[in-house]
Amino acid sequence: MIPVHVEGSSMVHRMPAGAKLSVMVVVVALISLTPNGPLLAGWGILVVVGYALAGLLRSQLFRQVYLMRWIIVITVVGQLVFVGETAAVLNTLRIVILILAAALVSLTTRVSDMLETVERFVGRFRRFGANPEAVGTVLMVAITSIPVIASHAGRVREAYRARRAGTNIPAMTSTMLVLAIKHADELGDALVARGGHAGSRR
């Protein structure tokens, strides 16, 4: 689930959205290419410092780690199947740091500011056929759909608990797929209707 923007007046909050997104892209690239544990630990410390500068160290850092607990478990287990313990831990640590860095940007930047920045950047390539409005719409749909799917997942989990059905992963997965497809159909119908209304206004 994408972290919700937290209001604040820190230097991180005040940074322009474009600057934060640019820094995040560079950091993501560098972390992805970092080969060993000490350097990864250094990046982790820098991310923690970022949360501290944003005033979110106590309120959000551990919460974000808790929210990704299943990602950590699944990643470690999946990695252990194919690589050794050291590589599994390093790869999982890399993913955790990347997610925390991205979450810091989301927590300190309004979605509207991020979308405006992306649309402005894509607009530079309009002469080559790029459509910034379409890109903005796709990003907005993706961002708004994630909490909906997460909400469905929570309701499915609670429903299975209420029925004392335990953690039936195949059944829960199939139920989630049905709900996700239903949401996609409803969203598609809404976008088609919106496009039709827009066309009639022209």
Write up what this structure looks like.
This protein has about 200 residues and is an all-alpha fold. The longest helix is centred in the last third of the chain and has 33 residues. The chain is globular. It starts with 10 loop residues before the first helix and ends with a helix.
Which percent range fits the helix content? over 70%
**Whole-angstrom Rg:** 20 Å
Query: Helix/strand/pairing class, anyone?
Result: mainly alpha
Strand tally: 0
Figure out the total of helices: 9
Shape: globular
Sheet having the most strands: none
Binned strand content: under 5%
Ends apart, CA distance between termini = 37 Å
The oligomerization state is: single chain
How is the secondary structure organized here?
Elements lengths: L10 H4 L2 H17 L3 H17 L3 H11 L1 H14 L2 H24 L2 H13 L8 H31 L6 H33 L1
Quick overview of this protein structure:
This protein is mainly α and 202 residues long. It has helices spanning 11-14, 17-33, 37-53, 57-67, 69-82, 85-108, 111-123, 132-162, 169-201.
